[in-house]
Amino acid sequence: MALRKFFSKVEDVEIVDNINGDYDILLINSAYRAPGMYFNYRHIKSVKKYGYTAWAFYLLSRFKRKNKILVHRLDGIRSRYAEVMTRMDDIQWKSLSIADYAIFQSRYSYELFRYHGFQRERFDIIYNGVDQDIFNMDNKVFWNKNERLRLVSSSWSPNPAKGHEIIARISELKYIDVVFVGRWAEGINPKCVKIIPPQTQSKLADIYKRSHIYLFPSQNESCPNSVLEALSCGLPVLYYDNAGTSEIANGYGISLTQNLEDNINSISDKYEYFVERIRKNVSNFSIEYAGGNYLRVFKNLFNEK
Fold first, then answer.
1. Where does 149-285 sit in CATH, by number?
2. Is the pTM for the entire model greater than 0.85?
3. Mean pLDDT, to the nearest integer, of 242-246?
4. Predicted local distance difference test score (pLDDT) of residue 30
5. Where do the domains of the chain lie?
6. Taking Cα atoms as reference points, which of 268, 230, 232 lies closest to residue 147?
């Protein structure tokens, strides 16, 4: 995790892996303790109040009580897409109700939670950041306008809502090549898309650097890391102007419309302009920038304690 890598380099900060260990601030991410694994809300509640997940650990500490500062990092709400409350949402809302501070990944994320009832004042909006030791413009191949325009898209999810159909439609346009990295949606004809299976971060970065434009037709995303990765590699973005994507891609590409050919022509005409803007602001997409904002929040909370 890029944020963990950032904090491992910060002086006077120690990362503790044991939830029952000796530390000051507990940062929880949405409702997960590991990819695909939910955390136990009762454990979080107990750790915040006593410093331990269970009474046995409290006994072993000889009744040494050390309550923790709880910071909740939030992405989205699953029931935004399904009409029923999911287990993830139930855990998120319960944990958010006892958190000392909330961090939303975008203004869209914050507005989503506010619409569903979040009214607390202690929060911040911190966009994600990526590891620019990997995702950068070193050895980047920029478009010279004499060669075919190379578009790249990516998604770990085969969910059709990620925009696979749009990717396929764009691949049929003249004078462009489209590469897709990840899992293609079942039942959607890829047409002229070249599909590459999921790659490591370093290999994905190499593919980005050999491409010219990043195509991101997914909608209602809170703060897509893939867009930040592509921007860090110097790629202007074709995206839908909604949700958190527009917050990070606005000014660095063209929003998609029904006229896809016109969109390609527009981003081609302004290619150098967008690349220059990306070069100027590329540090804003880094984990150092995001991590610095997390560190500011943590220091303020610690000093209040």
1. 3.40.50.2000
2. yes
3. 95
4. 84
5. 2-129+287-304, 149-285
6. 268
